[in-house]
UniProtKB/TrEMBL annotation:
The keyword Signal does not apply. This is Sigma-54 factor interaction domain-containing protein. The lineage of its organism: Bacteria, Pseudomonadati, Pseudomonadota, Betaproteobacteria, Burkholderiales. GO terms for molecular function: ATP binding; sequence-specific DNA binding. Gene3D superfamilies: 1.10.8.60, 3.30.450.40, Homeodomain-like, P-loop containing nucleotide triphosphate hydrolases. CDD domains: AAA (cd00009). It comes from Limnohabitans planktonicus II-D5.
């Protein structure tokens, strides 16, 4: 060694006084790496070809970090600093040059390709930072090798979403004031930029997951990322940024210390709310922050939950849901849920009760997709290879519901077919029975249905022995069944039997993924019309679609886009391709107009404008006349009329029954 031992001792003592991390580094440099501090060899710089091997694994991070590095460079460049990004081994994979000092910087090794590991350079900021995994400034002769003793270098670690060291960010200058305190601000800037890069990388890596943002300040939550956690569908913490790990990680003294180790814990152990509760809170907050409490410290945080924005995310979420606690592949349900928080929580609920013999009651406005949800539940269940049998209680006359549902035995009726017929309940044996508009089930039949559900046996009309059945029952209603129970129109015991779990489907206007849903339906309608190119919706038309109240919900959306796709020219959907009630824009009611039954009827305006000239039945109330005209025009094809008006068939049947309209024999 060319340096005298006393000089080294003196420098170690100096370093020891201020900072144990530096002192330890000096010891390692001397004892482990046996570096000669006086040797004036040039810095080790990797060739372009060699450097590629270090850069390739970090390409994604370098891409994300670039903006942060440029920003940091703009702040410190004039003071003579250069900004470097190194890999965890200290190899400089990227840098923002300072042209004013280009030659000297290159000479000093403050350049891309240079290696700043402790093993090569002895004590230096990048080297110590990557070992200590903490920000540090190494100033002037705190550096181990004499050629570096004029430099001042401030470094901060950049951690990956799993807590692993990804890189080190550094700002270094060739010349600086003697007092180390002059570097305090630079170290703060470097640390802050490193956190920013880390968070940007975290969000990029977890763009396919739900991300929970937490801050102790409600006001700062939107402008300053604080604590971040990526959650899977079941609420397991998949990753957390450094601050979340520090603030929410295990408190060794806490009785729940094991479970509270942030990574891999269920979010309910960390914040006392499970995933459905969190999703519900976020939904209620409508985009604003909501309060949560850290279980271990009882500290209050303000939270926001964001959802993946890309459609293919649902696929990824479905994959995660497979390993989640529900242990079921819920893909068909996820496709319907899109990225709407309430729908996503519905999927979780459905997953939890699946295959457990629990009855499901779906509640939602017409056209919100209740039947599709029921079908998707069936597809996701263990019964998927058995029958899915649907009966719309509002669509068939009361007198026929009984035989439809229970079937009849051979020769049960005079004049009836001699051979008996299996009812829907028996047809669904082993599979799923979907009873749509259950609120329209006559009271007498409710009692019989209850017996089937309670005893698992069905007695066909005219039969003498009952038959065993095993069905998963899913019911749906747009009505508030509990109010019907209060009014005596629906049996309370049946209600409790059917509502093992109640799932509320949001109206289209409430869905937070409306834009994505519009796109999805547009694609489907384009395909259905065998068109090659998917039309573009102009911003004006898009605005109208997004601000309309959609009383007929997804069914109405499908109808509107089907027509728009057919009408549009130059593959452009403009406002003129949309129905008049949408074009009215400001005139659109916030809540849908409702019929006397409390049922929304989508296209009242369209109906009156289209049929005003063909209404001879002046004796009938106006709306009935319109409906009658429509039915006649479509030769009593109820499905077609329902499609045109954007309502369900059951709505039309109910209206017909109420107004005494019946099809000619
Ligand atoms: N998530 C979805 N994506 C695309 N289309 C959907 C979705 N959900 C429902 N639809 C479509 O919307 C229409 C209405 O759906 P569905 O019949 O399931 O609603 P519903 O709530 O049962 O209606 P109703 O109670 O009035 O009979 C159907 O054409 C269905 O294909």
């Amino acid at each position: 060694m060319s340096f005298s031992a006393s000089v080294i001792d003196q420098r170690i003592r100096q370093a020891l006084q201020g900072d144990s991390a530096l002192a330890n580094s000096w010891k390692r440099s001397l004892e482990r790496y046996q570096i000669d501090p006086g040797l004036s060899t040039p810095p080790r710089v990797y060739s372009r070809g060699q450097l590629k091997d270090y850069q390739t694994p970090l390409e994604d991070l370098m891409h994300t970090a670039r903006e942060g590095m440029n920003q940091l460079s703009r702040q410190v460049r004039d003071a003579g600093y250069v900004v470097l990004l190194t890999d965890p081994q200290g190899v400089t994979v990227d840098f923002v040059n300072n042209e004013a000092h280009d030659k000297e910087l290159r000479h000093a090794g403050l350049y891309v390709g240079a290696c700043w590991s402790e093993e090569v350079e002895g004590t230096c900021a990048v080297g110590v930072c990557s070992i200590e995994r903490a920000p540090i400034t190494v100033h002037h002769d705190e550096h181990f090798r004499s050629p570096n003793t004029t430099l001042t270098c401030s470094s901060a670690p950049v951690f990956g979403p799993g807590g692993d060291l990804l890189a080190v960010l550094d700002a270094s200058a060739l010349y600086s004031p003697h007092d180390k305190r002059s570097q305090h601000l630079v170290l703060q800037m470097v640390s802050q930029t490193a956190r920013m890069v880390e968070d940007a990388y975290f969000l990029r890596q977890h763009r396919h997951h739900c991300v929970l943002y937490l801050s102790e300040s409600r006001a700062l939550l939107d402008v300053q990322v604080s604590l971040l956690m990526a959650l899977d569908e079941s609420g397991r913490v998949m990753a957390a940024n450094s601050r979340a790990r520090q603030c929410l990680g295990a408190h060794p003294d806490h009785p729940l210390a094991q479970a509270l180790t942030c990574m891999g814990a269920d979010i309910s152990h960390v914040l006392g709310l499970d995933m459905p509760a969190l999703v519900t809170q976020a939904h209620r907050a409508k985009g604003d922050a909501f309060e949560v409490r850290h279980v271990a410290s009882a500290r209050r945080y303000f939270a926001k939950l964001t959802h993946p924005t890309q459609p293919r995310v649902t696929r990824v979420l479905a994959d995660h849901a497979q390993v989640a606690s529900v242990g079921t592949d819920l893909q068909a349900l996820h496709v319907l849920a899109g990225t709407d928080p309430l729908m996503m929580s519905n999927v979780l609920k459905a997953g939890r009760v699946m295959n457990k013999g629990i009855s499901v009651l779906l509640h939602g406005e017409t056209g919100t997709g209740k039947e599709m949800f029921a079908q998707a539940m069936h597809q996701c269940s263990a019964r998927k290879d058995q029958a899915f049998v649907a009966l719309n209680c509002a669509a068939i006359p009361e007198s026929l519901i009984e035989s439809e549902l229970f079937g009849y035995a051979d020769g049960a009726f005079t004049g009836a077919r001699t051979k008996g017929v299996k009812g829907k309940i028996q047809q669904a044996d082993g599979g799923t029975l979907f009873l749509d508009e259950i609120g329209d089930m006559p009271l007498a039949l409710q009692t019989r249905l209850l017996r089937v559900l309670a005893e698992g046996e069905v007695m066909p009309l005219g039969a003498e022995v009952s038959a065993k059945v095993d069905v998963q029952v899913i019911c749906a209603s747009h009505r508030k069944l509990l109010s019907m129970v209060d009014e005596g129109h629906f049996r309370q015991d049946l209600y409790f039997r059917l509502s093992g779990i109640v799932i509320e489907l949001p109206a289209l206007r409430e869905r937070q993924d409306l834009g994505a849903l519009i796109e999805q339906v547009l694609h489907a309608q384009t395909r259905a019309q065998s068109r090659v190119f998917i039309p573009t919706i102009t911003p004006e038309a898009c605005d109208l679609l997004k601000h309309y109240a959609w009383p007929g919900n997804i069914r109405e959306l499908k109808n509107v886009l089907r027509t728009a796709v057919a009408l549009c020219e130059r593959n452009l959907i403009e406002p003129r391709h949309l129905p008049r009630e949408l074009q009215c824009g400001a005139g659109v009611p916030l809540l849908p107009p409702r019929l006397a039954s409390g049922e929304p009827l989508a296209s009242c305006a369209a109906l009156s404008s289209q049929t005003a000239s063909s209404m001879p039945e002046s004796a009938l109330p106006e709306k009935s006349a319109q409906l009658l005209a429509h039915l006649r025009q479509e030769r009593w094809n109820v499905s077609e009329v329902a499609r045109q008006l954007g309502v369900s068939r059951s709505t039309i049947y109910r209206r017909m029954a109420r107004e005494g309209i019946s099809a000619p024999i």
